[in-house]
From TrEMBL:
This is ATP-grasp domain-containing protein. Keywords: ATP-binding, Ligase, Nucleotide-binding. Pfam families: Dala_Dala_lig_C. The keyword Secreted does not apply. It comes from Elizabethkingia argenteiflava. Belongs to the D-alanine--D-alanine ligase family. InterPro entries: ATP-grasp, ATP_grasp_subdomain_1, Dala_Dala_lig_C. Residues 124-347 form the ATP-grasp domain. GO terms for molecular function: ATP binding; D-alanine-D-alanine ligase activity; metal ion binding. The keyword Nucleus does not apply.
């Protein structure tokens, strides 16, 4: 498949605006690490990569990526880029929208959709209306934090409405502990004035990456995928206090693996993949999304976290060989190394 676009990767340079008092925390470095992994991978596959400096150093993330500001994107275009890879947190009003409206090609989601579906409450309500399995939950605000009543038993999980990975997520065993944790979260103002609490699912956790429809290269053959489709589910283990640790703390290759071939063929896993593919269609995904799922004591799986911008680090640069993301791990099962994954993602670019 020939490719003649000139590609620039953008990273998150500033915290997104709050939405109705809800704050999404920013990852240190703003995904510049994965952006550099992607750029380096594409460059060594002879894709024309536009970088901020003429001779990017392999170990310097910021040599490979542009900030997601009007000035940063404009600079990439002035240097020759005609495709922007949106390796950043998007939202309605993001600077890249102007360039999308003017016809620039992009890899990534529609900013307005990310703004809507990054809100876990909105997304869970949407999925629930389509009869997809969602954990029980309750909204907590700074006004009702002293007198809310749970409709499900402990243990529970307290988390931000617009979260990022497992940051700010707490496993809670008692009402006293929950009250303290919620008050601490509100006092920090890291997540805004709305939080939520959901039932704790005690069973196996798996995460499923869903790819958008399009033409892909799989096993050296061009394959047309007319519908959303799943990469093989990845099992998470070695949880810390009931929660999978943030991948910036523990590399996912140390606590995650693709399910066995026998499990992948099971009807329960196949149905879970279909549920995740339905969810991807409902949020109009234009690029990979990742959905975290977990089973309860009765081995029924629930979709508990839909990630519109999954982490996309990978083992491309020599000093980052242990940095495959959950999506990269899943991709290896279908014969894609990180290079093949990002190249196939690139082929799914879109423009207005």
């Amino acid at each position: 498949m020939t490719f003649n676009k000139k590609v620039a990767i953008i990273y998150q340079s500033q915290i997104p605006p709050d939405r109705n008092g809800i704050i999404k925390p920013m990852k240190p470095g703003g995904y510049s690490d994965s952006g550099a992994d992607i750029a380096y991978s594409l460059q060594r596959q002879h894709i024309d990569i536009i970088t901020p400096v003429d001779n990017p150093q392999i170990e310097n993330d910021y040599d490979w990526v542009f900030p997601d500001t009007i000035e940063g994107i404009q600079r990439a275009i002035e240097k020759g880029a005609n495709l922007i890879w949106l390796n950043t947190v998007l939202y309605e009003g993001h600077p890249v929208e102007t360039f999308i409206d003017n016809g620039i090609a992009v890899v990534g989601q529609i900013p307005q959709n990310v703004d809507v579906f990054d809100d876990k409450l909105v997304t869970n309500e949407l999925l629930s209306k389509q009869h997809l399995p969602i954990p029980k939950s309750i909204i907590i605000t700074d006004e009702n934090v002293n007198h809310f009543k749970l409709t499900f038993p402990f243990s529970v999980v307290a988390k931000p409405v617009r979260g990022r990975g497992s940051q700010g997520v707490s496993f809670v065993r008692t009402q006293e502990e929950l009250t303290r944790i919620l008050k601490d979260m509100f006092a920090s103002n890291d997540y805004g004035n709305v939080l939520y609490v959901e039932e704790f699912l005690s069973g196996e956790e798996v995460t499923i990456t869903v790819m958008p429809p399009g033409e892909y290269i799989i096993n050296h053959q061009s394959v047309l995928k007319e519908n959303y489709w799943s990469l093989p589910p990845v099992k998470r283990f070695n949880h810390e206090n009931g929660i999978a640790p943030y991948n910036g703390t523990v590399a996912v290759i140390n606590n995650s693996e693709v399910l066995s071939d026998e499990r992948l063929k099971s009807e329960i896993v196949q149905q879970l993949c279909r549920d995740c593919e339905t969810a991807a269609r409902l949020v109009y995904a234009k690029a990979p999304i990742r959905i975290d799922c977990r089973s309860n004591a009765d081995v029924k799986y629930f979709l508990f976290d839909l990630n519109m911008k999954p982490n996309m680090t990978g083992a491309s640069r020599p000093h980052r060989q242990d940095q495959d993301s959950l999506t990269a791990l899943a991709a290896r099962k279908i014969g894609w190394d990180f290079d093949a994954l990002v190249l196939n993602m690139l082929y799914q670019y879109w423009q207005k």
